[in-house]
Design goal:
The protein is α/β, with parallel strands linked by helices. The protein has helices spanning 17-25, 43-66, 80-92, 114-129, 138-147, 190-198, 231-240, 257-265, 276-279, 296-307, 310-328, 330-349, and strands spanning 2-7, 9-10, 28-35, 74-77, 99-103, 132-135, 155-157, 179-183, 204-207, 223-226, 241-246, 270-273, 289-291. Strand 4, helix 3 and strand 5 (99-103) form a beta-alpha-beta unit. Helix 1 packs across helix 12 (330-349), helix 2 crosses helix 3 and helix 3 (80-92) packs across helix 4 (114-129).
Length: 353
Amino acid sequence: MTLHYITGASAEADDWPLSRKLDSEIPDYRIFCGDASPRYRTKAALLFREYPKMIWFALKKSWQSIFARPKPDVVLAHTDIILFCYGLLKLLSFSSKPRLVWLGYIYSEKGTGLVGRLNRLFHRIVIGFCARVITYAGSDEEACRRVFPSQAEKFSTTLYGVGLGFTPKPYSEQARAGTILSAGRSQRDYACLAEAISDTDYAVDIVCDNLDACPDRLASEKVRIHRKVHGRDFIDMLQSAELVVVPLSDTSASAGHMVMQQAMAYRKPVIVTDIPSIRDYIFSDDSLVLVPPNDPAALAAAIDRLMKDDAARDALAGRAGEIFDAHLSMDRMAERVTELMKAELAAADSQPI
């Protein structure tokens, strides 16, 4: 039985823990990877530059996979564009195989007007192409089952994982710069963070390349916005941070996991907004600090308390690292996803051609 994995997240994805685990556990495994991740500051750049790039990548890799020999029995992919392109090619080939699996599905409402209806229709079509749709939070799975009731049986959940490749030093031994760091673009509430910081003695560095998520008007002496920080540069900022804050909107959508887990991985104390999708990642109350959504006063109090208490930050960071290693690393995720793919291959083996 043959498994293909298509990802545009990195040209070096074949060296990811997930790919290595799949390669070691599944005899006939092949990856189709490249760097097609969107990088944009405006919606215009997304529409006219990044989407064409992603569509071309999806068509090219889907074509290579579907006409490969031996033919794949299961195809694992991360994005709606890849799965839509693959589903169309599969229809044109008049074949019931391969089974398509969507890893990391997040559904976001686009309103109740025409755009919202078209968005839901598109997602329903792509989900229809898939045999399995895997979310990264139980709240996402529940929401998807409500939005797409006729396809509810396709949804399941596994926790997201972050890869490092090395073990960071304990918090107390790190060379820290005394900074507060925040990052990310999806469902962020940077206005709340800016207000929380405004009456304190602290300043925050926000890493966000999207103007809609973090508008320039939020910048001040206490709020430093960094637009072009990626890869190693971001990791350097994270490693030197005293504290990481992930302020999120009051939403049922999945958000904040990656930055939160990166901070935990690097043994950093974390403050994060308490929303449903975050709760799946809380294995211990002493591994991070939760604050209510849209509550600048509570966020300011949490920041002040931790910044004034070295021992509390050290304890929080140490526990966060333990939780990350046990549950939230890319190695743990790779184990979970590999077992899911074995089940999909077994299902494909019993599926009529």
